[in-house]
Every structure is written in structure tokens, then in C-alpha cells.
Design brief:
The protein is of the alpha/beta class. The protein has one domain: Rossmann fold, CATH 3.40.50. Helix content is 32%, strand content 21%. Strands 1, 2, 3, 4, 5, 6 and 7 form a seven-stranded mixed beta sheet that branches. Helix 3 crosses helix 4. The chain is globular, with a radius of gyration of 17 Å.
Length: 183
Amino acid sequence: MLEVGAGGGELAAVLRGDGYDVVAIDPASESAGVLAVALGDLDERAGSFDAALAVVSLHHLDPLDASCRRLAEVMRPGGRLVVDEFDVERLDDRAAAWWLARREPHDHGPATPVEVVAGLREHVHPLGRVRTALEEWFALEEAERGPYLHRWSMPPGLREAEAQAIAAGDIPATGARMVGMRR
């Protein structure tokens, strides 16, 4: 299994503990068990992986199309892809205000909802663009929508509060999970 954007390698460690053979990559990682390599530079033979997962990482890929092509190359036909992503196009002022009111006090990022939305839309790929780049190589199911904001500089335990705010219609669901199969 390939984990794209493994960060500190926590998920890879759990999967390895469950018996999976995992190659974890993240160009910014300095963690043991994670290769500090970008997806586009991954040196693996074609069809090396039966499965891949990308948790909150594809919206950062650069170049996106070439990276998705490389992902497809290293996966075997019929292999499964699991994507857990941020849908920046659904982020609005209400969601940004919800996040700002709950973020960690040491986070000195943007101060207003407008700044949060504008900054993110300027710096990350929208989910529609990520999906288009993947669809050339993968048959993707419809995205399952859910919480995402609780992951950003937030105290633990806010996933349920975010889910409740989404269910009440107070904020949009900015998380998207997709499963696909390599064509």
C-alpha cells in the first residue's frame, strides 16, 4: 500500500501494525518510516501497489496532473484508491468563522473569515480539479461529504461538534471522501 502525504507516519505505523506492507511518502517529512519524496519523484516500478491512500494531501500536489499520473503508474490495474480531502470550494464565511472561533490560541493565521477563505482558495487545488486529474486514471465513486475543519489547529474532540453544525445547516461539509479503482 502507498500512503501519499503521510506527514509524521502515524497512519502508516497503525497499518503496519495491522500487517499491511506500507510505503509512506511525504516530501516535507523528517519522520522515521516516511520517505521524504514527492509523489512525482517516487522511484517505484509500475504496478508496485495494490492500494493507495491520500489523506488531506492531494490538494497540495504540484504539479497535480503529473503527480496523479505517477500515482496511476505505480498502482496495479484494479487497485483501490482511498482519498480523504478538503473541498475548498465549499468553504464559506460561516465555516471559516466557526473554525476561527475554535482554533488553538497559538495559531496566529488569518484573522477574519474572508481572509481564511481567500487564502485557502489561493493556495490549494479545489476538489473538482483534484477529481478531474484522478478521473483520467481512476473510476471514482461519488464523494461522501463530512467534517474536515476539526483537523486544523483545533483542540481534540471537535469532530462531533463540526458534524452537528453541518447536520444543523450552520456550516457546509468541507470534507470529502472518495474511493476509486485504477482503470
